[in-house]
Amino acid sequence: WDDHETENNYAGSVPENDIPPSEFLLRRAAAYRAYWENQPLRAAQLPQGSDARLYRRLQWGTLAQFDILDTRQYRSDQAYDDRPHAPGAESDDPARTITGTAQEQWLLDGWKASTALWNVMPQQVCFSQRKFDVTADAALSMDAWDGYRASRDRVVAGAKAAGVDNWLILTGDVHVGYALDVKEDFDDPASATVGTEVTCTSVASGRDGVEKPANWDLYMRANPHMKFYNGKRGYVRAELGRQATRLDFRTVSAISTPGAAVTTAGSFVTEAGEPGLKPA
Questions:
Q1: CA distance 193 to 157
Q2: Nearest 5°: phi and psi at 232?
Q3: Which phi and psi angles does 245 have, rounded to 5°?
C-alpha cells in the first residue's frame, strides 16, 4: 500500500497533478475500492467513499506486535513542491505530519501497551535520514520521513518513552534494498541507535538493476547509518526469534532471464535488547 494504487506521490487529498481536489477524491475512492477488492483485507478496511482505515495492529503471540501504518492518506502536502531539498522552515514546520494526528497517537499508545518482544512497524517510505550528497546542506526526499522531520522526531521520542527496545521498521517505495540503523539523532553518528530499518527492493520495477547503483559510494559516505545498499530485484527474508532477528537480502541475478539464480546479497542480525545491525 502506498501512492501507486491511486496516483504517484499524492498527499492526503492533494493530487500530484493539477486537477481539482473533488475530481481526485473520486479517483481515490475508486482506487481504494479496487485495492480492497483485490487484496486479502478484512472488513474493517472496507473503504467508505474516498476513506479507508488501513492502519491496523496485528499480534503474533508475545513474539511480535505489527503496527501497520498508512503514511499516504493523512499526510500534509510535501514541502518545496516535492522536489529534493535541504531541510528548511517549510519542511520542518512542527504542524506538518506524515501520519495524521490520530494515527500517530494510536501508534504511540499501542507501544505503551505492547508486551511483545519485537515491535515491527511496516510502512511505506524511508524512515531513516537519506542524504543525497555529502554537503552540509544536502538535499533530502520531501516525500519520505525526511520531509516530515517533526513527525519522525515525535515517533522516535514516543518509542523511547514507551521503552521500545526492539524496533524493526519495514519499508518499500524506492525499488532498492537498504539496511539502516535508526538513530536518535541522524546528524550525530555517535547518537544512540534506537531501531533497525529494512527497505525492500522491488520485484520487477527497474528491470534487472545493478548491485551497486551509480550513487552507491556517495550514499554510503553521506549516510553512515546505512549499512547496506543494493540495486538488484528481489525480496528480504526476516526471521524473528527470541534472541535476534535475522535479515537476508535475496536478489535475482536478472529478472529478464527465466530461471536466473537467486542469491543472498547480504545478511544481518539485530539482537534483542541491542539495537543495531551486525553482519550475520
A1: 13
A2: -85, 170
A3: -110, 130
**Nearest alpha carbon to residue 178 among 203, 206, 199:** 199
Identify whether the C-beta of residue 231 lies closer than 8 Å to the C-beta of residue 220. no
Q: Among residues 80, 75, 90, which one has the least CA distance to residue 124?
A: 75
Burial (Cβ within 10 Å: 0-12, 13-18, ≥19) of residue 99: buried
Query: With contact defined as beta carbons under 8 Å apart, do 167 and 185 qualify?
Result: no
Sheet with 177-183: strands ordered across: 56-60, 64-68, 118-122, 167-171, 193-199, 177-183, 226-230
Report the number of secondary-structure helices (H) and strands (E) in the chain: 4, 11
The four Cα atoms 141, 144, 145, 146 give a dihedral, to 10 degrees, of: 0
Size of the chain, expressed as the number of residues it contains? 280
Alpha-carbon distances, residue 268 vs 104, 196, 212 (angstroms):
29, 11, 18
C-beta separation of 54 from 3 below 8 A: no
Q: What is the mean pLDDT of each run of 10 residues along the chain (280 residues)?
A: 95 94 96 97 96 97 98 98 98 98 98 98 98 96 98 98 96 97 96 98 96 98 98 98 98 96 98 97
CA-CA distance, 181 to 197, in Å (whole number)? 6
What does the pLDDT look like over 78-119, one tens digit per residue?
999 999 999 999 999 999 999 999 999 999 999 999 999 999
| Nearest to 197, CA basis, from 233, 155, 232 | 155
Q: In terms of DSSP bridges, do strands 193-199 and 177-183 run parallel, antiparallel, or are they unpaired? A: antiparallel
**Which residue, chain included where needed, has cell 472488513?**
43
At 59, give phi and psi (nearest 5°). Answer: -115, 140
Q: Of 200, 102, 69, 95, whose CA–CA distance to 149 is shortest?
A: 95
pTM assigned to the model: 0.97
Name all domains of the chain by residue range, CATH numbers in brackets: 1-54 (no CATH), 55-279 (3.60.21.70)
Q: How many alpha carbons fall within 13 Å on the CB side of residue 140?
A: 27
